[in-house]
Amino acid sequence: MTLQAPSTPRRTGSGRTTARSDADLRRELATTRPLVPTATVGGALAAGGPLLVCLALAVVGWFLTDAGGEGSPSGALRVGAHGWLVAHGSTVAVEGIRITAIPLGLTVICAWVTWRVGHRVGESVSGHGPDADRIADGARDWTVPLAAVLFTVGYAVVGVVTASVAATAASDPDPTRVVLWSVLLGLVVGGPAIASGSGRAAIWLPAVPATVRDVLLVARRILGTWALVCVLALAAAFVLDFSTAANVVSQLHADAGAVVLMVVLTLLVLPNALLFSSAYLLGPGFTVGAGTTVSTTAVVLGPLPMFPLLAALPDQGSQPWWTDLLMLTPVLVAMYVAGRVQRDRPVLAWDRAAIRGCAGGITAGVLLAALTAVAGGAVGPGRMREVGPYTFDVLLHSMASFGIGGVVGAVVVCWWQRDADSWLRTRLSAVRDRLPRRG
Protein backbone atom coordinates (compact mmCIF):
# COMPACT_ATOMS: atom_id res chain seq x y z
CA MET A 1 0.00 0.00 0.00
CA THR A 2 1.45 3.35 -1.02
CA LEU A 3 1.17 6.48 1.03
CA GLN A 4 -0.86 9.23 -0.55
CA ALA A 5 -1.92 12.62 0.65
CA PRO A 6 -5.69 12.70 1.15
CA SER A 7 -7.48 14.52 -1.63
CA THR A 8 -9.85 17.40 -0.95
CA PRO A 9 -13.50 16.39 -1.37
CA ARG A 10 -15.15 17.89 -4.42
CA ARG A 11 -18.71 19.16 -4.38
CA THR A 12 -21.25 19.37 -7.14
CA GLY A 13 -23.37 22.44 -7.80
CA SER A 14 -26.03 21.15 -5.41
CA GLY A 15 -23.48 20.85 -2.62
CA ARG A 16 -23.26 17.05 -2.62
CA THR A 17 -19.88 15.30 -2.59
CA THR A 18 -19.04 13.08 -5.52
CA ALA A 19 -18.70 9.29 -5.27
CA ARG A 20 -14.94 9.57 -5.68
CA SER A 21 -14.71 11.95 -2.74
CA ASP A 22 -16.73 9.55 -0.62
CA ALA A 23 -14.31 6.77 -1.49
CA ASP A 24 -11.37 9.00 -0.65
CA LEU A 25 -12.94 9.87 2.69
CA ARG A 26 -13.56 6.23 3.52
CA ARG A 27 -9.98 5.38 2.59
CA GLU A 28 -8.66 8.22 4.74
CA LEU A 29 -10.72 7.07 7.71
CA ALA A 30 -9.60 3.47 7.20
CA THR A 31 -5.91 4.44 7.16
CA THR A 32 -5.89 6.94 10.03
CA ARG A 33 -7.42 4.93 12.83
CA PRO A 34 -6.08 5.78 16.31
CA LEU A 35 -2.59 4.34 16.43
CA VAL A 36 -2.30 3.37 20.10
CA PRO A 37 -5.52 1.35 20.50
CA THR A 38 -5.31 -0.10 16.98
CA ALA A 39 -1.79 -1.46 17.39
CA THR A 40 -2.33 -2.66 20.97
CA VAL A 41 -5.62 -4.40 20.25
CA GLY A 42 -4.10 -5.84 17.07
CA GLY A 43 -1.33 -7.48 19.08
CA ALA A 44 -3.86 -8.90 21.53
CA LEU A 45 -5.95 -10.29 18.67
CA ALA A 46 -2.88 -11.83 17.03
CA ALA A 47 -2.18 -13.71 20.25
CA GLY A 48 -5.79 -14.42 21.16
CA GLY A 49 -6.84 -15.90 17.81
CA PRO A 50 -4.61 -19.00 17.95
CA LEU A 51 -5.25 -19.24 21.69
CA LEU A 52 -9.00 -19.54 21.14
CA VAL A 53 -8.41 -22.19 18.47
CA CYS A 54 -6.23 -24.16 20.90
CA LEU A 55 -8.92 -23.95 23.57
CA ALA A 56 -11.59 -25.15 21.14
CA LEU A 57 -9.46 -28.03 19.87
CA ALA A 58 -8.69 -29.10 23.43
CA VAL A 59 -12.39 -29.30 24.28
CA VAL A 60 -13.10 -31.23 21.07
CA GLY A 61 -10.23 -33.60 21.83
CA TRP A 62 -11.57 -34.14 25.33
CA PHE A 63 -14.91 -35.25 23.91
CA LEU A 64 -13.29 -37.40 21.22
CA THR A 65 -11.12 -39.38 23.63
CA ASP A 66 -13.60 -40.40 26.32
CA ALA A 67 -16.84 -38.59 25.40
CA GLY A 68 -16.39 -36.32 28.39
CA GLY A 69 -16.40 -39.24 30.82
CA GLU A 70 -13.32 -38.07 32.65
CA GLY A 71 -12.02 -34.65 33.54
CA SER A 72 -13.93 -31.43 33.08
CA PRO A 73 -14.31 -28.69 30.46
CA SER A 74 -12.14 -26.40 32.55
CA GLY A 75 -9.39 -29.02 32.57
CA ALA A 76 -9.62 -29.32 28.78
CA LEU A 77 -9.40 -25.54 28.44
CA ARG A 78 -6.33 -25.53 30.65
CA VAL A 79 -4.72 -28.17 28.41
CA GLY A 80 -5.40 -26.00 25.36
CA ALA A 81 -3.91 -22.96 27.08
CA HIS A 82 -0.81 -24.95 28.00
CA GLY A 83 -0.48 -26.06 24.38
CA TRP A 84 -0.48 -22.42 23.29
CA LEU A 85 2.08 -21.59 25.98
CA VAL A 86 4.36 -24.44 24.92
CA ALA A 87 4.24 -23.11 21.34
CA HIS A 88 5.61 -19.86 22.79
CA GLY A 89 8.60 -21.49 24.46
CA SER A 90 7.11 -22.11 27.89
CA THR A 91 8.21 -25.26 29.64
CA VAL A 92 5.38 -27.23 31.23
CA ALA A 93 5.42 -30.01 33.81
CA VAL A 94 3.22 -33.03 33.03
CA GLU A 95 2.92 -35.51 35.90
CA GLY A 96 6.19 -34.21 37.30
CA ILE A 97 8.01 -34.41 33.94
CA ARG A 98 9.29 -31.12 32.54
CA ILE A 99 8.50 -30.78 28.80
CA THR A 100 10.79 -28.34 27.02
CA ALA A 101 10.24 -29.25 23.35
CA ILE A 102 8.30 -26.75 21.23
CA PRO A 103 5.68 -27.90 18.68
CA LEU A 104 6.93 -25.66 15.90
CA GLY A 105 3.87 -26.33 13.75
CA LEU A 106 1.74 -24.40 16.22
CA THR A 107 4.42 -21.72 16.46
CA VAL A 108 4.35 -21.34 12.67
CA ILE A 109 0.56 -20.91 12.80
CA CYS A 110 0.95 -18.22 15.47
CA ALA A 111 3.57 -16.47 13.33
CA TRP A 112 1.29 -16.57 10.28
CA VAL A 113 -1.60 -15.06 12.23
CA THR A 114 0.77 -12.43 13.62
CA TRP A 115 1.81 -11.49 10.09
CA ARG A 116 -1.76 -11.24 8.83
CA VAL A 117 -2.97 -9.15 11.76
CA GLY A 118 0.17 -7.01 11.69
CA HIS A 119 -0.32 -6.32 8.00
CA ARG A 120 -3.89 -5.21 8.68
CA VAL A 121 -2.71 -2.98 11.52
CA GLY A 122 -0.17 -1.43 9.15
CA GLU A 123 -2.92 -0.63 6.65
CA SER A 124 -5.03 0.91 9.41
CA VAL A 125 -2.29 3.30 10.59
CA SER A 126 -0.65 4.02 7.23
CA GLY A 127 -2.13 7.53 7.14
CA HIS A 128 -0.21 8.62 10.25
CA GLY A 129 3.14 10.36 10.02
CA PRO A 130 4.74 12.10 7.03
CA ASP A 131 3.74 11.24 3.48
CA ALA A 132 5.80 9.21 1.02
CA ASP A 133 7.67 12.20 -0.41
CA ARG A 134 8.75 13.48 3.00
CA ILE A 135 9.83 9.99 4.08
CA ALA A 136 11.88 9.61 0.89
CA ASP A 137 13.50 12.97 1.67
CA GLY A 138 14.63 11.67 5.06
CA ALA A 139 11.87 12.86 7.38
CA ARG A 140 11.70 10.89 10.61
CA ASP A 141 8.72 8.58 10.79
CA TRP A 142 8.03 6.80 14.08
CA THR A 143 4.71 5.30 13.02
CA VAL A 144 5.98 1.77 12.36
CA PRO A 145 8.36 1.52 15.36
CA LEU A 146 5.69 2.81 17.74
CA ALA A 147 3.03 0.55 16.27
CA ALA A 148 5.37 -2.46 16.45
CA VAL A 149 6.16 -1.82 20.11
CA LEU A 150 2.49 -1.42 21.03
CA PHE A 151 1.62 -4.50 18.97
CA THR A 152 4.25 -6.48 20.89
CA VAL A 153 2.99 -5.19 24.23
CA GLY A 154 -0.54 -6.31 23.42
CA TYR A 155 0.72 -9.73 22.39
CA ALA A 156 2.87 -10.14 25.51
CA VAL A 157 0.02 -9.11 27.83
CA VAL A 158 -2.13 -11.94 26.46
CA GLY A 159 0.75 -14.35 27.03
CA VAL A 160 1.28 -13.26 30.64
CA VAL A 161 -2.44 -13.40 31.44
CA THR A 162 -2.75 -16.85 29.87
CA ALA A 163 0.24 -18.16 31.82
CA SER A 164 -1.11 -16.82 35.11
CA VAL A 165 -4.65 -18.12 34.57
CA ALA A 166 -3.66 -21.56 33.28
CA ALA A 167 -0.87 -22.15 35.80
CA THR A 168 -1.24 -24.78 38.48
CA ALA A 169 1.16 -26.05 41.09
CA ALA A 170 1.69 -29.16 38.97
CA SER A 171 2.13 -27.57 35.53
CA ASP A 172 4.16 -24.48 36.54
CA PRO A 173 4.54 -22.79 33.11
CA ASP A 174 7.36 -20.31 32.56
CA PRO A 175 5.95 -16.81 31.85
CA THR A 176 9.42 -15.37 31.23
CA ARG A 177 9.95 -17.53 28.16
CA VAL A 178 6.44 -16.69 26.98
CA VAL A 179 7.26 -12.99 27.14
CA LEU A 180 10.53 -13.51 25.27
CA TRP A 181 8.82 -15.44 22.48
CA SER A 182 6.01 -12.88 22.38
CA VAL A 183 8.56 -10.11 21.91
CA LEU A 184 10.29 -12.17 19.22
CA LEU A 185 7.07 -12.75 17.28
CA GLY A 186 5.87 -9.19 17.79
CA LEU A 187 9.05 -7.50 16.60
CA VAL A 188 10.49 -9.98 14.09
CA VAL A 189 7.18 -10.97 12.47
CA GLY A 190 4.71 -8.27 13.46
CA GLY A 191 7.10 -5.36 12.87
CA PRO A 192 7.87 -6.18 9.21
CA ALA A 193 4.18 -6.94 8.65
CA ILE A 194 3.22 -3.49 9.91
CA ALA A 195 5.93 -1.92 7.75
CA SER A 196 4.63 -3.80 4.72
CA GLY A 197 0.99 -3.02 5.33
CA SER A 198 1.65 0.67 5.95
CA GLY A 199 3.67 1.05 2.75
CA ARG A 200 6.85 2.04 4.59
CA ALA A 201 8.67 -1.12 3.54
CA ALA A 202 8.30 -0.18 -0.13
CA ILE A 203 9.97 3.16 0.67
CA TRP A 204 12.73 1.81 2.90
CA LEU A 205 13.81 -1.29 0.95
CA PRO A 206 15.26 0.59 -2.05
CA ALA A 207 17.66 2.28 0.38
CA VAL A 208 19.15 -1.12 1.28
CA PRO A 209 22.26 -1.83 -0.85
CA ALA A 210 21.55 -4.11 -3.79
CA THR A 211 24.31 -6.48 -2.67
CA VAL A 212 22.63 -7.04 0.68
CA ARG A 213 19.28 -7.65 -0.97
CA ASP A 214 20.83 -10.17 -3.34
CA VAL A 215 22.57 -12.00 -0.49
CA LEU A 216 19.30 -12.25 1.42
CA LEU A 217 17.56 -13.44 -1.75
CA VAL A 218 20.11 -16.25 -2.15
CA ALA A 219 19.71 -17.22 1.51
CA ARG A 220 15.92 -17.21 1.32
CA ARG A 221 15.84 -19.33 -1.82
CA ILE A 222 18.37 -21.78 -0.40
CA LEU A 223 16.26 -22.25 2.72
CA GLY A 224 13.09 -22.64 0.67
CA THR A 225 14.62 -25.21 -1.66
CA TRP A 226 16.25 -27.01 1.26
CA ALA A 227 12.89 -27.22 3.04
CA LEU A 228 11.41 -28.87 -0.05
CA VAL A 229 14.28 -31.38 -0.15
CA CYS A 230 13.76 -32.20 3.54
CA VAL A 231 10.04 -32.71 2.95
CA LEU A 232 10.75 -35.15 0.13
CA ALA A 233 13.35 -37.02 2.21
CA LEU A 234 11.04 -37.31 5.22
CA ALA A 235 8.10 -38.40 3.07
CA ALA A 236 10.20 -41.03 1.30
CA ALA A 237 11.50 -42.45 4.58
CA PHE A 238 8.00 -42.58 6.06
CA VAL A 239 6.41 -44.19 2.99
CA LEU A 240 9.13 -46.84 2.74
CA ASP A 241 8.38 -47.96 6.31
CA PHE A 242 4.69 -47.13 6.42
CA SER A 243 3.88 -50.63 7.66
CA THR A 244 5.71 -49.86 10.90
CA ALA A 245 3.59 -46.75 11.45
CA ALA A 246 0.41 -48.73 10.78
CA ASN A 247 1.58 -51.40 13.22
CA VAL A 248 2.13 -48.75 15.91
CA VAL A 249 -1.40 -47.42 15.46
CA SER A 250 -2.87 -50.92 15.64
CA GLN A 251 -0.95 -51.73 18.83
CA LEU A 252 -2.32 -48.60 20.46
CA HIS A 253 -5.88 -49.84 19.80
CA ALA A 254 -6.79 -46.28 18.91
CA ASP A 255 -10.34 -45.43 17.92
CA ALA A 256 -11.26 -42.83 15.30
CA GLY A 257 -11.08 -39.93 17.76
CA ALA A 258 -7.65 -40.94 19.02
CA VAL A 259 -6.39 -41.35 15.46
CA VAL A 260 -7.58 -37.83 14.62
CA LEU A 261 -5.76 -36.44 17.65
CA MET A 262 -2.63 -38.37 16.68
CA VAL A 263 -2.75 -36.88 13.17
CA VAL A 264 -3.14 -33.37 14.62
CA LEU A 265 -0.18 -33.90 16.95
CA THR A 266 1.90 -35.20 14.04
CA LEU A 267 1.13 -32.10 11.99
CA LEU A 268 2.06 -29.86 14.92
CA VAL A 269 5.53 -31.41 15.18
CA LEU A 270 6.06 -31.74 11.42
CA PRO A 271 8.40 -28.69 11.24
CA ASN A 272 10.46 -30.28 14.03
CA ALA A 273 10.68 -33.48 11.99
CA LEU A 274 11.80 -31.50 8.94
CA LEU A 275 14.63 -29.94 10.93
CA PHE A 276 15.60 -33.42 12.14
CA SER A 277 15.62 -34.53 8.49
CA SER A 278 17.75 -31.50 7.65
CA ALA A 279 20.31 -32.42 10.32
CA TYR A 280 20.45 -35.96 8.94
CA LEU A 281 21.03 -34.84 5.33
CA LEU A 282 23.69 -32.35 6.43
CA GLY A 283 25.62 -35.13 8.17
CA PRO A 284 25.64 -34.48 11.95
CA GLY A 285 22.27 -36.13 12.55
CA PHE A 286 20.30 -36.06 15.77
CA THR A 287 19.47 -37.95 18.93
CA VAL A 288 16.15 -39.51 19.94
CA GLY A 289 17.09 -40.22 23.52
CA ALA A 290 20.15 -40.33 25.71
CA GLY A 291 22.80 -42.63 24.27
CA THR A 292 21.30 -42.70 20.78
CA THR A 293 22.37 -41.19 17.49
CA VAL A 294 20.95 -41.10 13.98
CA SER A 295 23.28 -40.02 11.18
CA THR A 296 24.29 -41.02 7.67
CA THR A 297 27.20 -43.10 9.00
CA ALA A 298 25.66 -44.96 11.94
CA VAL A 299 22.34 -45.39 13.71
CA VAL A 300 22.14 -46.36 17.38
CA LEU A 301 18.63 -46.58 18.80
CA GLY A 302 17.01 -47.71 22.01
CA PRO A 303 13.43 -48.12 23.19
CA LEU A 304 11.26 -45.49 21.51
CA PRO A 305 7.79 -44.09 22.23
CA MET A 306 4.96 -45.55 20.17
CA PHE A 307 4.56 -42.59 17.85
CA PRO A 308 3.85 -43.30 14.16
CA LEU A 309 6.16 -40.60 12.80
CA LEU A 310 9.15 -42.39 14.31
CA ALA A 311 8.70 -45.06 11.64
CA ALA A 312 10.70 -42.74 9.37
CA LEU A 313 13.86 -43.46 11.38
CA PRO A 314 16.45 -45.60 9.55
CA ASP A 315 17.22 -49.11 10.71
CA GLN A 316 19.77 -49.54 13.48
CA GLY A 317 23.36 -50.43 12.64
CA SER A 318 25.88 -49.48 10.01
CA GLN A 319 24.40 -47.65 7.06
CA PRO A 320 24.82 -48.39 3.33
CA TRP A 321 27.70 -46.74 1.51
CA TRP A 322 25.41 -44.46 -0.47
CA THR A 323 24.06 -42.66 2.61
CA ASP A 324 27.34 -40.73 2.86
CA LEU A 325 26.54 -39.26 -0.55
CA LEU A 326 23.48 -37.60 0.96
CA MET A 327 25.81 -34.99 2.46
CA LEU A 328 26.34 -33.69 -1.08
CA THR A 329 22.68 -32.67 -1.19
CA PRO A 330 23.10 -29.27 0.54
CA VAL A 331 26.06 -28.45 -1.72
CA LEU A 332 24.01 -29.22 -4.83
CA VAL A 333 21.06 -27.21 -3.52
CA ALA A 334 23.23 -24.16 -2.89
CA MET A 335 24.89 -24.53 -6.30
CA TYR A 336 21.51 -24.65 -8.02
CA VAL A 337 20.07 -21.66 -6.16
CA ALA A 338 23.17 -19.46 -6.46
CA GLY A 339 23.38 -20.29 -10.15
CA ARG A 340 19.74 -19.37 -10.69
CA VAL A 341 20.18 -16.04 -8.90
CA GLN A 342 23.31 -15.31 -10.94
CA ARG A 343 21.36 -16.10 -14.11
CA ASP A 344 18.43 -13.88 -13.13
CA ARG A 345 20.56 -11.05 -11.68
CA PRO A 346 23.89 -11.28 -13.48
CA VAL A 347 27.03 -9.64 -12.15
CA LEU A 348 30.04 -10.10 -14.41
CA ALA A 349 32.70 -9.39 -11.78
CA TRP A 350 34.14 -12.65 -10.44
CA ASP A 351 34.54 -11.39 -6.89
CA ARG A 352 31.01 -9.99 -6.66
CA ALA A 353 29.47 -13.21 -7.94
CA ALA A 354 31.55 -15.34 -5.58
CA ILE A 355 30.89 -13.14 -2.56
CA ARG A 356 27.16 -13.08 -3.23
CA GLY A 357 26.96 -16.85 -3.51
CA CYS A 358 29.19 -17.49 -0.49
CA ALA A 359 27.56 -14.87 1.75
CA GLY A 360 24.09 -16.08 0.81
CA GLY A 361 25.03 -19.67 1.61
CA ILE A 362 26.62 -18.79 4.95
CA THR A 363 23.61 -16.65 5.89
CA ALA A 364 21.30 -19.55 5.06
CA GLY A 365 23.43 -21.83 7.22
CA VAL A 366 23.26 -19.50 10.20
CA LEU A 367 19.49 -19.10 9.90
CA LEU A 368 19.03 -22.86 9.56
CA ALA A 369 21.11 -23.45 12.69
CA ALA A 370 19.01 -20.91 14.59
CA LEU A 371 15.85 -22.79 13.63
CA THR A 372 17.49 -26.12 14.46
CA ALA A 373 18.31 -24.87 17.96
CA VAL A 374 14.60 -24.82 18.88
CA ALA A 375 13.68 -28.11 17.20
CA GLY A 376 14.49 -30.38 20.13
CA GLY A 377 14.04 -30.63 23.86
CA ALA A 378 12.75 -32.93 26.55
CA VAL A 379 9.64 -34.86 25.51
CA GLY A 380 9.42 -37.35 28.35
CA PRO A 381 11.15 -38.91 31.35
CA GLY A 382 14.51 -40.66 31.48
CA ARG A 383 16.18 -41.06 28.12
CA MET A 384 13.63 -38.87 26.36
CA ARG A 385 14.98 -35.79 28.10
CA GLU A 386 17.56 -35.55 25.30
CA VAL A 387 15.89 -35.33 21.90
CA GLY A 388 17.05 -33.05 19.11
CA PRO A 389 19.61 -32.33 16.39
CA TYR A 390 23.24 -31.55 17.12
CA THR A 391 22.87 -27.81 16.65
CA PHE A 392 26.51 -26.69 16.68
CA ASP A 393 27.52 -29.38 14.21
CA VAL A 394 24.58 -28.40 12.02
CA LEU A 395 25.85 -24.81 12.08
CA LEU A 396 29.32 -25.83 10.92
CA HIS A 397 28.12 -28.26 8.25
CA SER A 398 25.43 -25.97 6.86
CA MET A 399 27.72 -22.95 6.64
CA ALA A 400 30.38 -25.01 4.88
CA SER A 401 28.03 -26.87 2.53
CA PHE A 402 25.84 -23.94 1.58
CA GLY A 403 28.81 -21.57 1.37
CA ILE A 404 30.87 -23.82 -0.90
CA GLY A 405 27.87 -24.66 -3.05
CA GLY A 406 26.95 -21.00 -3.34
CA VAL A 407 30.43 -20.03 -4.49
CA VAL A 408 30.68 -22.83 -7.05
CA GLY A 409 27.21 -22.26 -8.49
CA ALA A 410 27.63 -18.50 -8.80
CA VAL A 411 31.14 -18.68 -10.30
CA VAL A 412 30.22 -21.36 -12.84
CA VAL A 413 27.24 -19.40 -14.13
CA CYS A 414 29.28 -16.18 -14.08
CA TRP A 415 31.94 -17.87 -16.22
CA TRP A 416 29.26 -19.07 -18.61
CA GLN A 417 27.86 -15.56 -18.93
CA ARG A 418 31.30 -14.02 -19.44
CA ASP A 419 33.23 -16.47 -21.57
CA ALA A 420 30.90 -19.19 -22.82
CA ASP A 421 30.48 -17.65 -26.24
CA SER A 422 34.20 -17.31 -26.97
CA TRP A 423 34.91 -20.72 -25.41
CA LEU A 424 32.34 -22.40 -27.64
CA ARG A 425 33.63 -20.59 -30.72
CA THR A 426 37.18 -21.71 -29.96
CA ARG A 427 36.16 -25.33 -29.43
CA LEU A 428 34.03 -25.41 -32.57
CA SER A 429 36.85 -23.88 -34.57
CA ALA A 430 39.25 -26.53 -33.26
CA VAL A 431 36.81 -29.28 -34.21
CA ARG A 432 36.44 -27.88 -37.72
CA ASP A 433 40.21 -27.75 -38.17
CA ARG A 434 40.48 -31.45 -37.32
CA LEU A 435 37.81 -32.49 -39.78
CA PRO A 436 39.07 -33.68 -43.18
CA ARG A 437 38.76 -31.05 -45.87
CA ARG A 438 37.09 -31.78 -49.17
CA GLY A 439 39.25 -31.58 -52.22
From TrEMBL:
Membrane-crossing residue ranges in chain numbering: 35-64, 146-166, 178-195, 226-246, 258-282, 294-313, 325-341, 353-374, 394-416
Keywords of this entry: Membrane, Transmembrane, Transmembrane helix
Ranges of biased composition (kind: Low complexity): 1-18
InterPro entries documented for this protein: DUF6350
Organism encoding this protein: Nocardioides simplex (Arthrobacter simplex)
Region annotated Disordered, chain positions: 1-24
Pfam families for this protein: DUF6350 (PF19877)
Keyword Phosphoprotein: no
Name assigned to this protein: Putative membrane protein related to de Novo purine biosynthesis
Keyword Ion transport carried by entry: no
